Amino acid sequence: MTVTPKGFAGELRTSPVSHATITGIGGYRPKRVVPNSEIVERIDSSDEWVRERSGIIERRFAGEGESVVDMSVFATEPALAMAGIEAGQLDAVIVATVSWPYQTPAAAPMIAERLGSKAAAFDISAACAGYCHAVSLATDMVRAGTAQHVLVVGVERLSDFTSPDDRGTAFIFADGAGAAVVSRSESPGIGPTVWGSDGAQWEAISQTESWIDVHEKNLGWPHIGMAGQTVFRWAVWGMAPVARKAMDAAGVTVDQLDAFIPHQANVRIVDAMAKQLGLPADLPIARDIAYTGNTSAASIPLAMERMVRHGEIPSGGLALQIGFGAGLSYAAQVVVIP
Ligand code: COA
User: What span, in angstroms and rounded, lies between the C-alpha atoms of 22 and 74?
Assistant: First the structure.
């Protein structure tokens, strides 16, 4: 049997394409400050080694019972205030995280509910590249007319998924949340995203066992493991060309940037990328990792929030942001600073 369409003669109605920009940014750093001295004994390391190899002086760990949802709500409140909108005006909430401890449902609907929003709400998993992936999705949603205001949250409680005895990760990972509001705008405020993945290196950063193995072999709580040198080489050599492509796609050169805000993986990676990109010596570069640690999906919005709050970077200026990590995944774009 052949079925035929009814023959709708017109064109489907769609929304006119518009522009998108970041209208608000917010961050939440848990109160509990954890200096290197609290970490190093169990991994036979030292404060000097950690500072020299990672740039980390201290990090924040969430308090007991302080959840991914709590931290997200705290980060979102100032972002909404800066954007000048109420939670009820949000059309979507996208949460980038790898440390929400439920397979389902996502954290996003609970965050939306706590904020007082009934918007579409979902999580994405792209690890340390998650925030830039979510900004890309939010931008496309706003540009296509699917949404007028989208909340993007990058949030992690990595202290739950980090082994305090793992020499390669115990000093790196930390907790926190960053939030951005992406809204419809008169002019372009978010450049094209350059993104991709290399699944051949899927095991370079990964949960140590699948949930099925954890259950069937009674393995206890899994942690995130990392092949440090593999990740280091990939990030240093692979990510500067991606950042350069994002600038080319936006039609921007290094002299026109007002800030470089890469994922806060490791200060040596940040410095190596800045060198390879030939960034001007006086360009503000995010080094939030020193006092915040590596907060994966939260690190870029947290770093931007600090630089904006301290008046280090100008509202209306251009920031190059790039996220990279487990997958291995990456995403970069040039954005107008809110
Ligand atoms: N404290 C003290 N010494 C340590 C150590 C620690 N935590 N971890 C490793 N070492 C020692 C090793 O025993 C080894 O000693 P040896 O030369 O006497 O044998 C030496 O340091 C080098 O070990 P290696 O494992 O090769 O470390 P590294 O130089 O690669 O440094 C990292 C480890 C994790 C700091 C580094 O690989 C790195 O920064 N990787 C990228 C991590 C990152 O940014 N991840 C986030 C991505 S999102």
Answer: 18
